[in-house]
Amino acid sequence: xxLKFYGTRGSxxxxxxxxxxxxxNTTCLQITFPDxxxxxxxxxxxxxxxxxxxxxxxGHKQEQVIILFTHFHWDHIQGFPFFAQAYxxxxxxxxxxxxxxxxxxxLREIFEVQMQSEYFPVQLDRMGANFEFLQIADASEHFTGxxxxxxxxxxxxxxxxxxxxxxxxxxxxxxxxVCTDVxxxxxxxxxxxxxxxxxxxxxxxxxxxxxxxxxxxxWGHSSFDQGMQLAEMAGVKRLALTHHDPEHDDEFLECxxxxxxxxxxxxxxxxxxxEIPI
Length: 278
Ligand SMILES: [Zn+2]
Ligand SMILES: [Zn+2]
Known about the structure:
alpha/beta
């Protein structure tokens, strides 16, 4: 697998000059399965626009594109109306949400409302692509289906306002874990430690410093230290911290990255456009 960050910013996109190194687009991850030349997407933050444009530029075609959602806060869906492939009548797009504890009542409605005429000029049913909205308990068969190699996707619900899911994706003996928009309680969530156990790459929320986190209890995010703590507890090989706060500019994040590496040498702060082979 290969992971590419198309959006690393949390909460709201930002375009100031001092934020360009780590990137201003909100959460969107592309997973490439190089042996079959297929991709899957996690979350549709504003980074999805560039993802779609890049696929066009290289002439990438695949009959069915899957977008798996951690949850549906704005910063994870705002790129959807600007995803070029969603306007292609030959394109099938499957939007996947985990259905447990009723996180969302009607998946299609979330996107219909987002694109109703008061908010957006083109409505969902006029976009053109062949959409499939699925709320499922297990995403494995869909990931296996698009890339023809058994792929096991384990989802774990975690603490976030409104609820959100972390994912563990296992394929050909490699493990990617994506764990964002998570607020641990007094201790690191033990279920997430199990989920991340032995991962080759853990992508973790790191919106705040430890000091900021104290003032942002209940906002649904983690500190850099908590990301590293989980990585250590789960014995993960590499750690990529993401969902950067819109107040954290490049200089600040570089400084944090250096501090993180003193504790966890294989830690990196995710940058827009960064690709990590797994
Ligand atoms: Zn978010
Ligand atoms: Zn959120």
